[in-house]
Amino acid sequence: MGAKEKYNRFSRIYDFFEGAMEKRVFSKYRTLLMSKLPRGAKILEIGIGTGKNIPYYPPDVEVIGIDFSPGMLEIARKRMNAFRGKRLTFLEMDAQNMSFSDNTFDAVISTFVFCTVPDPIKGLKEAKRVLKIGGKAIFLEHMRSENSFINVFLYLVNVVTKPLLGTSTVRDTKANILRAGFEIEEEIHLASDVVRMFICTKRR
């Protein structure tokens, strides 16, 4: 079973599964991410999932949210009333093969997505392609630590998450972002170095 099918099946209990962490921890990370967005931006959210970022968007933005799972998008649409921005559009689309033209968006964001995209570098290159020159890309992701002791735990967790959802807890996402051609302007460690936010600019 592919990742798309797994997320379709898991979509109805996904928010319950992460409920405690979302309320206590992840909500703070989402607030921080939104504070980094440029004013009045046209934004692409890659892997919008069940729409957990929707209530946090500032009021002057336009957002297109994509996800490869129609089940996740169905849940996200139920959060539309919480959106404060100008316009919110949902599209079923694979992050690795986007249909948008080059240089379309002022900003691109993802939250806990590139741990699951089957070919993360291909997906990140697509993010760079659709971002305007000078545009901001903000990635909030969990990843492999630089601490070997922490990684022991992450590899144990990976034994469960990888077959269940196709989600890796041990990817080197920072390296993948750099390989995709982004320049990292700011790196913020939020949970040791396992959860990090990368703020990048497309220079060329």
TrEMBL record:
InterPro entries: Methyltransf_11, SAM-dependent_MTases_sf, Thiol_S-MT. Pfam families: Methyltransf_11. Residues 44-139 form the Methyltransferase type domain. Keywords: Methyltransferase, Transferase. Coiled coil: none annotated. One of its GO terms (biological process) is methylation. GO terms for molecular function: S-adenosylmethionine-dependent methyltransferase activity. This is Methyltransferase type 11. It comes from Kosmotoga pacifica.
